[in-house]
Design goal:
By secondary structure, the chain is α/β, with parallel strands linked by helices. The chain has one domain: 3-Layer(aba) Sandwich (Rossmann fold). Helix content is 32%, strand content 24%. The protein is built from five helices and seven strands, in the order ββαββαβαβαβα. It has helices spanning 36-44, 86-102, 121-133, 149-163, 184-192; strands spanning 6-12, 24-30, 62-67, 71-75, 106-114, 137-142, 169-175. A seven-stranded mixed β-sheet has the order 1-3-4-2-5-6-7, with helices on both faces. Helix 4 (149-163) links the parallel strand 6 and strand 7. It binds guanosine-5'-triphosphate (GTP) and magnesium ion. Guanosine-5'-triphosphate (GTP) is lined by residues 30, 32-38, 52-54, 56-59, 77-78, 142-143, 145-146, 177-179.
């Protein structure tokens, strides 16, 4: 699946701009700056197909990428970013919630968690929303290259503990580094296996 063509389809700013729900879709949600866009670049092997940046709040639209003919990969705006104008943040958050709750073909949401920081209160809010929408979600720990081996197990346990409270959570965690490539092949096969 990942050997086929990958293309940017469109950026969406309102629900009526969503492409037709005609194929399996997975999305990448997470706090601003957690590494959503970088992960899409690593998965597709196309550096720069999703715009990544050190500036939190980089992704401001729902960006659709086509993976061959049969999948959409969806890059979402980050949540929990306090430094944008309130009206802008509220607009993104509303769109994000509408999308997560209303997309029929959304097969799995990957909720990205910084492997240094674990699950935060804003992540819990998104997880609750996904529970109520009955969208299966799976946690992907990002920036594994920045975590000391000693701290790893502690964060993994914190995340496992948090997931235990969420009926929509898929229990298996994926530890990744978009920089070094850890976990990228595993995540590709998880996505390829969804139907
Ligand atoms: P928003 O679109 O603002 O919500 O951010 P995002 O979640 O898309 O994050 P993005 O991919 O833009 O990455 C944010 C910063 O983290 C960038 O400076 C990336 O280079 C860095 N980053 C992302 N993934 C990794 C990783 O695996 N390891 C390291 N060391 N840095 C990473
Ligand atoms: Mg982004």
């Amino acid at each position: 699946l990942f050997a086929g063509p990958v293309d940017f389809l469109k950026g969406v700013v309102a629900m009526d701009g969503l492409p037709e729900a005609d194929r399996v879709e997975v999305c990448f949600a997470g706090r601003s700056n957690v590494g959503k866009s970088s992960l899409i670049n690593a998965l597709t092997g196309r550096k720069g197909i999703a715009r990544a940046s050190n500036t939190p709040g980089r992704t401001q639209e729902i960006n659709f990428f086509t993976l061959g003919e049969e999948r959409y990969l969806v890059d979402l705006p980050g949540y929990g970013y306090a430094n944008a104008p309130l009206a802008v943040v509220e607009k993104w958050q509303r769109l994000l919630k509408q999308y997560l709750q209303g997309r029929q073909t959304l097969r799995r949401a990957f909720v990205l968690i910084d492997a240094r920081h674990g699950v935060k209160a804003v992540d819990e809010e998104i997880m609750k929303l996904l529970d109520s929408a009955a969208v299966t979600f799976q946690c992907v720990l990002t920036k594994a290259d920045k975590v000391k081996l000693n701290d790893r197990e502690r964060v993994l346990n914190q995340v496992r503990g948090a997931l235990a409270k969420h009926p929509a959570a898929f229990p298996e965690l994926v530890l990744t580094s978009s920089e070094k490539g850890d976990g990228i092949a595993s995540l590709r096969s998880i996505i390829a296996g969804l139907d």
